[in-house]
Amino acid sequence: MSLIDLSGNLLFVAFIAYLVATLLFGGAIKQSNATGNNTHIWGKLAIVVTIIGFLSQLSYFITRWIHTGHAPVSNMFEFTTAFGMFIVAAFILIYFIYRMTALGLVALPVALLIIAYAAMFPNEVSPLVPSLQSHWLTIHVITAALGQSILAISAVAGLIYLLKVVDVKKASKQRFWLEAVMYCIIIVVGFVLVTSTFSAMDYESTYTYVDKEGKDRQIIYNMPPIFGMNDYKAVEEHGMSPLVEMPGIINAKKLTTVVWSLLVGSILYLLIRLIARRRISAIFQPLVKRVNLQLLDEIGYRSVLIGFPVFTLGALIFAMIWAQIAWSRFWGWDPKEVWALITWLFYAAFLHLRLSKGWEGERSAWLALIGFGIILFNLIAVNLILAGLHSYA
Amino acid sequence: MENITCACGHSNPYGTKLCEKCGRPLTEEEKQNKVVDMRYDGTAIRSKTYNKSIVDKIWNFFSSVKVGISLIIITLVAASIGTILPQELYVNAPDVSKPAYYEKVYGWFGKVYNQLGLSDLYSTWWFQILVGMLAISIIVASLDRGIPLYKSLKNQRVKRHESFMKRQRIVAEGHVTASPEETLDKVEKKMTEMKYNVRRDGSALLAEKGRFSRYGPYINHVGLIVFLGGVMLRLVPGFYVDESIWVREGEMRAVSGMDGYFIENRKFILETHDNKPQGEQVRQGVNVVAKNFQSDITLYKQPKDAIPGDIDNLEKVRDYSIRVNHPLKEAGFALYQMNYRLNELKQMNFNLVNKATEESLGTIEIDLTNPKKAYNLGNGASVQLLVYTPDFNGFENGAPQTKSSLPVNPAFIFKMTTPETPDGETSFVAIKQTMEPFGETKYKMKFAGSETLNVSNFTIRKDRTIPILFVGGVIFMIGVAIGSYWNHRRLWLQVEPDGGVVMAAHVNKNMFSMKKDLDAVTAFAGLPHYIDQLEKLEEGEESTDGGIKEKEGDNTL
Questions:
Q1: Would the CB atoms of A292 and B557 count as touching at under 8 Å?
Q2: Which of A317, A326, A339 has the CB atom closest to B83's CB atom?
């Protein structure tokens, strides 16, 4: 087995381990809800499996690093996988400070989804373009990802907090938005399902089109085209033709992916609702009914406190140092830079809001969720939609 | 405004909420509170005290945390709007045609976006005013709260009044069985063991740890102000240079913005990865991935007291290979390789040919950046270059026009003189095009090959604000780390001679760890159990699950 195959297998092992650990965390909570016995055994087992998974993924990271010769954070697949790994690391760190089992029940699925999302991107080893050939790639990207991961734990705590306090039996804004968060999570599952299905079928359709600047280009769809590119012509088409043609400024291929994911995700969501006859938030609510809210709030606040300096260092200061070396200016208002600044401003506002009374507990939990939303926007939308200097993937 | 005299006899400045000496609540509001507001330790905050004059009002506006947060949020939203469409800086079109570009590519939305100035949002006056207001807010709020807080924490008394202690979040009351002195000794021993700084005053004890962490936010604010100040210094002439030059291979040019320096571009190198394209690379139609962009250059410097422009006695400074991520640094300047053009025409060769016999009378070599006026071929044959347009784009009033000074599409008007045609014949020659404006000629200029070269684009940058920005960044990081990773823990203890005990504790964040310390000292010194007044309050309000614990909480869940 070559090193890169070994690396891939290690990542797979980690994925399975996180999956098992999630179930074990669920078991630990069920046990403690029912009898209170065996909680410690289940909980211990869960964290041990989590750590095994983390070590396995760390080995993936190191072996891939050795194989490619650079830190494996240089494209969408590598970065997002690493982001998932750091979330698990941040969870383990916070777990050993606060020993809260319920965190695992949310943190691990989040990490799983992020790694699954990463796996939808090409995972071939690609050589580095000149601007990425620098030690600052390692320093800047890893620190920034680590900061984001620790901040993500506050969203995990926030979500559990809301699952406990929001009354899912009474109609309210809170109930609506909490369910909306759940729906978004299911949409990501939808994306993973639809992408892996069509990729397993080796689906490919090729079109030529005219881009927004009037140049002729070619594009390959990996999903049956719902939307066609501007002035498209089929080169090699399978299954179906595009239903609607899009103007040049819209990337119809990406729009197709989004719509497919929404479609499959929504069907999945409806199925769950039909089978369980409950809201998804209501399914999870019993699991978190005994968590300590004060402690959750503290975890949410503390993870922002721990993550904020790391994020500042990695995503702003190291970023500026590298930008000065590579691009001759430390700041250029590139979309990725702006969104890093927005994330930073947002968490600065979060910290200042805690100074005012009333912005603790539930409000703080909502803010933590919005913060994670901004982080994900910066990861997904800015890279894939807003073109800029950071569009490496 | 007069001072407030507390029951303990201490005279406090107007606006004080908790007596500086004993901690008794002084305002009606604080007297009503079950748990006092310890954010600034109850000191007189200017903005909370005065609101009469215009200065007060402005001061209060900028010192308000609410205003500060609003400014942060407005800045955040404004910044995000600037990312909807690419900023002008990143639009690949000449400056004048940028508005047209927005309309052409993004339709009416692009037009409006551009007209509102959103396509250059970050340099608009209003965005800069926003950042300026944020800076003022940071300064004012820090002065407003930081100084009183510092004074108050510096002059802390050990002994506090009961009414202060009972209004803390953590309170314990009861009796100890051991003697008061022994209890105090034990607490002092345990707290010292846990790295607390312990002071005693008769029957009172104050244990304190990590006070410096309270200054973290103020330190990081100083860092931010230094940083923003550094950014503003750029506007001062001499602090910031940003120039750009194109240098052809083999050419030497004065370095713009860097007086007395000359750069010679010896060679531009483009290397590509020799991997087999696969996966995403194929999908995006990218056949090669660049591996290296490099300009091998030599930097020269004029000797001292040389006349500007005199390039005869240049001193070599050094050879260097400028690559991405590896700028050349010299005398506070940095030279970056930012762009390149491959295979620019450098030289074109023509043969003077007799149309009838195809006989060549010789070859002329035209240097396209520096063409000669006349070329003598010997034997009475010569060619004069009447007109040269480097980037020909048509005639105007009979004269050929050029679009730019770059040799992209060279065109020439030659006058050919041979023994056979002593008066000379005129011919217009461009790429794939010949014209004989004054009648048919016997001779023609026949294209005989060309030479190309590469051109490198260098950015010359000097930024003397960088050290200031760096210092600002370091101060910020130190402040934010202090404020985030440490916390200020205090424990007040009062043991009466009859064994009556009042204990109170305060921590600015991370109550979880404070409680661990409290558990340890309570067990060690046999103190009464403490209660968390906030937790009690919350449970009183909620009282949802009956199973919720008094003080530890179900931490395993």
A1: yes
A2: A339
